[in-house]
Amino acid sequence: MTATQIIELQKRVGTTPDGFWGPKSTDACQRHLRSLMPKTNPWPNSNQSSIRAFYGPPGESNLTNLDVTGLGVLYLGKTVKTIRCHKLVAESLHRVLSEIARSSSSEVLTKYAGCFNLRPMRGGTSLSTHSWGIAIDLDPGNNGNRVHWPCQAKMPIEVMESFSREGWLSAGAFWSRDSMHFQATR
């Protein structure tokens, strides 16, 4: 991002617009996104025990096929008709993707990179939230795991706001990297 773009983002999240993204800007962004979340967040905490208690066991037993026909979701350039996700997040995820499809940031949907994937977290032994089908990745080419947001990664704040309105966490804003990743935890 350019200094001018950072200033605009800082204005949007309610912090001093100085063109430098540091801890104060990060805190303001997190407060901004949390302010958009439902007062009673429907999702569990992000620790493994809370996720298991809320969603049940990882794997395919609680998955459903979410119809995303007409939303412009593409995987490697091919139209995606359904996304395998946990049945408890399906309606929420559809609302988010529908909102993004109607926005000026809809191009991120053309770079869908997955939802359900039974695997450990990168570099760890704990299961990824993808193992429950409660996480989705969008536009990894511009928002890689070790690429910091917003200075290098390019996930639009509008996409993060759409997920926040449904209570989902945006990795880029909450752990400054992996901004392709969104998960239905608080």
Reconstruct the topology from this structure.
Blueprint: H1 3-13, H2 23-36, H3 48-55, E1 63-67, E2 74-75, E3 78-79, E4 82-86, H4 90-101, E5 112-114, E6 135-138, H5 157-165, E7 169-170, H6 171-175, E8 181-183
Verbal overview:
This protein has 186 residues and is an alpha+beta fold. It has a single domain (37-183), classed as Muramoyl-pentapeptide Carboxypeptidase, domain 2 (2-Layer Sandwich), CATH 3.30.1380. Helices cover 32% and strands 14% of the residues. The protein is built from six helices and eight strands. The chain has helices at 3-13, 23-36, 48-55, 90-101, 157-165, 171-175, and strands at 63-67, 74-75, 78-79, 82-86, 112-114, 135-138, 169-170, 181-183. The strands form three sheets. A four-stranded antiparallel β-sheet has the order 5-6-8-7. A two-stranded antiparallel ribbon has the order 1-4. The protein has a two-stranded antiparallel ribbon with strand order 2-3. Strand 2 and strand 3 form a beta hairpin. Helix 2 packs across helix 5 and helix 4 packs antiparallel against helix 5 (157-165).
Brief rundown of the structure:
The chain has 186 residues and is an alpha+beta fold.
CATH topology: Muramoyl-pentapeptide Carboxypeptidase, domain 2
CATH architecture: 2-Layer Sandwich
Number of strands: 8
Domain count = 1
Proportion in β-strands:
5-15%
Low-confidence runs = none
Outline the biggest β-sheet.
4 strands, antiparallel
CATH class: Alpha Beta
Helical residues, percent: 25-40%
Sequence of secondary-structure elements: HHHEEEEHEEHEHE
General shape: globular
Distance between the termini: 27 Å
Total of helices? 6
Sheet with most strands: strand arrangement:
5-6-8-7
Derived structural class: alpha+beta
Could you report the average pLDDT, rounded to the nearest whole number?
Answer: 95
Radius of gyration: 16 Å
